[in-house]
Amino acid sequence: MTRVLGIETSCDETSAAVLEGAGDTVAQHSLVILSQDVHRVFGGVVPEIASRAHLTAIVPVVERALADAGIAGRELDAIAVTNAPGLVGALLVGVSYAKSLAFALDVPVIGVHHMEGHLFATALEHAAAVPPFTALLVSGGHTMLVDVPAWGRYRLLGRTRDDAAGEAFDKVAKLLGLPYPGGPHVERVAAGADAGPFRFARPMLRRNQQPDDPDYYDFSFSGLKTAVLNAVKSSTLDTDGASIARAFQDALIDTLVEKTARAAQEHGRDRVVLGGGVACNKTLVRAMRERCERFGAQVFAPSARLATDNAAMIARAGLYHFERGERSALDLNAYASQPLPGLVAA
Ligand code: KG4
Ligand code: ZN
To answer: How confident is the model over 146-198, as pLDDT tens digits?
Structure first.
C-alpha cells in the first residue's frame, strides 16, 4: 500500500488530500479544498491574487489534510503535485511547496498534469469508472473528449476550438446579469424555464458529419455565445432571460452529449466518464445518461467536490505514476500549458 499526499494549486482552489492504495483499490483519507472567494468581485480569476492566496493557504491546507487523515508527514511514500497546465504563478506555489516538503521528508515528488487528474477523479467514487472508457472533461479552462483504453494511454479525439464549456456558461451568465462563476446560476435559471421562442444552432454538430471530418469530435462555443448576446439584445419580456438560459444550455448540452456518444460508439466503449466543473450540471448528466443508455453504455459522473478542482484526483494520478516507478526530479517546474502525457495517435 502506498500513501500519497496530493497538492493542487493550478487555479483558484488551494487543495490537499491524502490517499492510500494499490492499483485501482484506493482509499481517500482526507480532502481539503479552500476556494478563493475573492475572485467573485472581479468576475473572473485574477492570477496575481490567486498566487498570493495560495501562498497564505498552502501550509494550513496541507497540515489540515494530514491531520484529517491521521497521518504524519514521515508516513507518506510520495507527494504528487499539479505542475501543468494552469496559472504559472499559482502552480509554482504548489510545486515549490511540494518539492520542499518532499526534500525534507526524503520522499519522491511526482508532477501531475491537471487534466490527467480529472480523468482519475471519478474512479475515487465509482469503482467501475476505470478504463477502458470515453471521457468528457468540461471545465472553465478546458473541453476535451478523450478515449482512454488504459490508464496512461490517452487518445485526444476532440477539443474546443475557442471557449471552454465552463467559460461559455460563465460568459452567458454575465450577459444575463448572473453572478460568477455562472454555471450553477445558468442551470438554476434554465431549470424553471421553457426555451420559448429561442433556439440556438448546435455548435459544430451536423447530421451528415463523418468520423474523418476535422470537426466530428471538436467543439466551439464562441458562436453560441454571440447568438446569446444577440438574443439578449433583442429580448423584450422579463421571462426572456430564463428562456435564453434554457435555450443556451440545451444547445450546449446537445453538442456535448452527441459528440461523446459518437466517441463511445466509434471506439466500442460501454463506459463514459465525466469530469471538470461543468460535470456538476445535473441536466448534462441526465441527458448523457439517457443518450448513452440507448447503446448500452453506463455514465459515471463525480460528485461536485471531485468534479471541480481538487487534490484527491492529483494524488490518485500520482499514485498511478508512482506505481510505475516514475519520479520527478527536484528541478520540476510549472508550465502554463503542456500536452496530456501518454497521448497515443487518434
Ligand atoms: O473544473 P473547475 O472547477 O475549474 C476549472 O478547472 O476551470 O470548473 C469551473 C467551471 C466554471 O466555468 C463553472 O461555471 C462551471 O465549471 N460549473 C458549471 C456548473 N457548476 C460549475 N457549469 C454548468 N453547470 C453547473 N452546475
Ligand atoms: Zn480543472
So the answer is: 999 999 999 999 999 999 999 999 999 999 999 989 999 999 999 989 988 89
Report in angstroms the alpha-carbon separations of 115 from 58, 109, 143, 191: 21, 18, 10, 29
My answer on whether 214 and 153 are in the same domain is yes
Grid coordinates given for 208:
451528415
The answer to whether the CB of 223 is under 6 A from ligand 1 is no
Q: Are 256 and 179 part of one and the same domain? A: yes
Closest ligand, as measured to the CA of 282: 1
Q: Which three cell numbers stand for residue 218?
A: 471538436
Distance 183 CA to ligand 1 centre (A): 6
Residues 148 and 98 occupy one common structural domain: no
Q: 329: left (phi > 0), else alpha (psi -120 to 50), else beta? A: beta
Q: To which residue does cell 446537445 refer?
A: 254
The domain of 12 spans 2-119+307-323
